[in-house]
Amino acid sequence: MSAAGSTPSRATAERSLAYHLNEGHSALLTLQLLRRAEYERELLRPGEALYDIPAVREQCHFTTHTPVDAVHDRFPYDLVRGVLGAIAAWQPFQAVFAGKAHPQDQ
Predict the structure, then answer these.
(1) Each residue of 1-41: pLDDT tens digit?
(2) CB 45 within 8 A of CB 67
(3) What distance in Å separates the CA atoms of residue 23 and residue 33, rounded to the nearest whole number?
(4) For residues 106 and 73, what is the distance between their CA atoms, to the nearest angstrom?
(5) Domain residue limits, the chain
(6) What value, to the nearest 5°, has the Cα angle with vertex 14 and ends 33 and 79?
(7) Which residue of 26, 39, 54, 101 sits 20 to 30 Å from the alpha carbon of 69, by its own alpha carbon?
């Protein structure tokens, strides 16, 4: 697992309006886009989102050819945290590792 493969060159990224993600192998791209869409923390009020999630969602188009659980990549949280750094501590991201499909799930 590497974030390097998910990092489009700055020149390409500045011209890209959308990204086609095929299968889960490209999932780290969305996290890189979130990093680029991070709001300035000092301008946020308590409870506001750290990232412009709707903007990233609008850029990403996902397809899959094998929608079965057996082909999905899985990685231990410690490895993910080592690769992603601070973004891995983001609460919605941790919810996924806790087995919740959506952070609002209890």
Answers:
(1) 344 444 555 555 566 789 998 877 787 888 888 888 889 98
(2) no
(3) 17
(4) 24
(5) 4-74
(6) 25
(7) 54
